[in-house]
Amino acid sequence: MATPNLGITEVLESQSNKVVTINEAIVALDNAGNASSDVDTAAGGTIAVAAAVFNRAVVLALTGAPAGAYNLEVPANERLFAVDNQSGQTATVQVTGGGGASVDVADGEQLLLHSDATDVKSYGGGSSGGGGGSSLADYGLYLPGVPVASQVLSRLLFAQAVDTSVNLAGSLAVSGVAATASTDFDLQKNGASIGTLNFAIGATTGTFTVASGQNFAIGDTFEVVAPAAPDATLADITITLQGTKP
């Protein structure tokens, strides 16, 4: 028999050499509360963390160089653990098979997480590893009227470091007047495109598409640029950009 979460072998009543099993259990507990284990994420896609790794190391150090954002699946048992993401891409941490709540861990970020065998939740951390925790950072942008072709509608200058998640999770965009045709706005970081904001036909709520989490440093800019052929009716757009402060 083994314990339900860490899978540590239990001592049987009639077992001989109990000291061996007891000592192995003590070592397993020691590792589960203190050890670190590298997880190679180079393959990308969905990376499954083996139970032997998840249950014997409290820190999962994500290494490798995947081509884009990826999913990190942990076994379906209760566990308090930490993720140190040095993979260069955002990792979405979830329980095997998905379906439950997940947590995005941006490149360079360290987070303390908990799995209840269904959902993964965050209990803080920080990109710098300072242990002070991360807090939400919201920035409101208003783009009045109907956009002009290729117009830079808004530029946000960051006075503090802010990290955003894949697809700008938590951010919102609404318009006062619905779009007549599907319309894409270019989202830029320091003048380089990082994704789009789309308003579908007849929609007043926009959808963000940003392939990876972004790390905005002090002095970086976030711009919203109108398309070369703006929609004739889409107007009065309000955006709330949400991120976390390292």
Textual characterization of the structure:
By secondary structure, this protein is mainly beta. It has two helices and 19 strands. The strands form five sheets. Strands 1-3-5-8-9 form a five-stranded mixed β-sheet, with no helix packed on it. Strands 11-18-14-15-16 form a five-stranded antiparallel β-sheet, with no helix packed on it. The radius of gyration is 23 Å and the shape is elongated. The two termini are about 45 Å apart.
CATH level-1 class of the largest domain: Mainly Beta
Helix-strand makeup class? mainly beta
The shape is elongated
Do you know the CATH topology of the largest domain? Jelly Rolls
Average residue-wise pLDDT = 88
Oligomer: single chain
Strand tally: 19
Strand proportion, as a percent range, falls in 35-45%
Structural topology:
Layout (H helix, E strand, L loop, with lengths): L17 H17 L1 E5 L5 E3 L2 H4 L4 E5 L6 E5 L3 E8 L5 E5 L7 E3 L4 E7 L3 E7 L8 E9 L8 E6 L4 E3 L7 E6 L5 E7 L2 E8 L7 E4 L3 E3 L4 E5 L9 E11 L1
Describe the structure concisely for a colleague:
The chain is 9% helix and 45% strand. With 246 residues, the chain is mainly beta. Mean pLDDT is 88; it is low at 126-133.
Which terms summarize this structure?
elongated, Jelly Rolls, mainly beta, five-stranded mixed sheet, 246 residues
